[in-house]
Write a structure and sequence with these properties.
Elements: H1 3-19, E1 24-30, E2 37-46, E3 49-58, H2 70-82, E4 90-97, E5 100-106, H3 114-117, H4 124-142, H5 161-176, H6 181-192, E6 201-203, E7 212-215, E8 218-222, E9 229-231, H7 233-239, H8 260-271, H9 281-303, H10 310-315, H11 319-329
Antiparallel strand pairs: 1-2, 2-3, 3-5, 4-5, 6-9, 7-8
Helix pairs in contact: 4-8, 5-6, 5-9, 6-9, 6-11, 7-9, 9-11
């Protein structure tokens, strides 16, 4: 029996219980991407017509020590969906699907592959509005009452959210237990120039092109909430702008689709804030460091045998590219270096 057949068999009882007699699971297919978790499309035939769902299921190992369980990721999606964030409708948390935890949510129609979003002619109109739409969506996420997210990782005691983010980077890099001089230099720069602290918000933690669904009209929904936490808004404001997430369209600073300022203007207008690109420079370097560490840990999931995958192995080749970007950003000669 293949994994697809076994998964269909395992999910059949839940489908019948949740949607009633007469509902059948007509198709199960593994979706592209999913370097950190599996995503399976489930096509159902119900008495009321067809229904498409997605089951998000654990893989072996994890990218970061602070990554959420499927239970907590499901809880965050429930919270975001209730708040009106464009997130998939959550259906159920399933603690054991063939020995691994999973949850089921609505399947949103559209494109998720970053390189297609930034290049395909049919999405040209979407790229014109995507920075603004993503800014508005992020504002809605950050507007969720932080008290509702107290189950998420976050600052301890009187620790500021930026200091918390820096501490996690230090811990994650120490956990790599191998020399990465460029990453150590980046970390030293972050320690030397700490940013101003602000009240923590519910951070998505991986907010970028590639983790959103896009159709011809623009943003459809926000996916991949496994790194949600309580943190500094600057984290989410910059992660989607680093070079790695422009998918080759380096001239379009926000996600390879448009200007960074359009994204920031939309966010600021929606939240009544005044974040500027210059004051977010620290977080841009931190975002690059975070992704560089992730490429190392993802590749090691393959090397260690936790989750054999050519996709995970290939991420290791990106580490050097991000190291070069970090070295460029901490150089005072960089054209956007904020200075004293």
């Amino acid at each position: 029996m293949t994994e697809t057949e076994a998964l269909a068999q395992a999910l059949a009882p839940w489908v019948a219980e949740r949607f009633g007699q007469g509902t059948t699971l007509s198709r199960v297919a593994l979706l592209a991407g999913g370097a950190s978790q599996q995503a399976w499309r489930l096509d159902l035939t119900t008495p009321n017509g067809p229904l498409a769902l997605v089951a998000r299921r654990d893989l072996g190992g994890q990218m970061f020590a602070t990554a959420l369980s499927r239970r907590d990721e499901f809880a965050v999606i429930e919270l975001a969906h209730r708040a009106g964030v464009p997130a998939p409708r959550p259906y159920a948390y399933l603690p054991d699907v063939l020995g691994k935890a999973a949850f089921v949510m609505a399947c949103l129609d559209g494109e998720t592959i970053g390189r297609r979003i930034v290049r395909e002619p049919r999405l040209a109109a979407a790229r014109q509005v995507l920075p603004q739409q993503m800014g508005q969506a992020l504002a809605a996420i950050h507007d969720i009452a932080i008290t509702e997210a107290d189950f998420l990782p976050g600052p301890q005691g009187r620790e500021g959210p930026a200091a918390y983010g820096l501490r996690l980077l230090e811990e994650e890099l120490a956990g790599v237990a191998a020399p990465y001089p460029a990453l150590e230099l980046g970390l030293a720069w972050l320690r030397a120039y700490p940013p101003s602290e602000t009240a923590p918000v519910l951070c998505h933690g991986d907010f970028r092109v590639g983790n959103v669904v896009v159709d011809e009209g623009g943003l459809v929904g926000v996916l991949d909430w496994e790194f949600a936490h309580r943190g500094h808004p600057g984290e989410d404001l910059t992660f989607g702008a680093i070079r790695a997430w422009r998918f080759g369209e380096v001239g379009q600073r926000y996600g390879g689709v448009g200007p960074m300022q359009e994204f920031l203007d939309a966010y600021n207008a929606a939240r009544g804030t005044r974040f500027e690109a210059g004051e977010l420079y620290w977080f841009e370097i931190a975002a690059n460091l975070k992704w560089a560490i992730a490429t190392v840990t993802q590749a090691r999931r393959h090397w260690s045998g936790q989750e054999p995958s050519l996709e995970l192995a290939s991420l290791g080749r990106m580490t050097a590219e991000i190291e070069l970007e970090i070295l460029s950003l901490i150089d005072p000669r960089h054209p956007r270096y904020p200075g004293d």
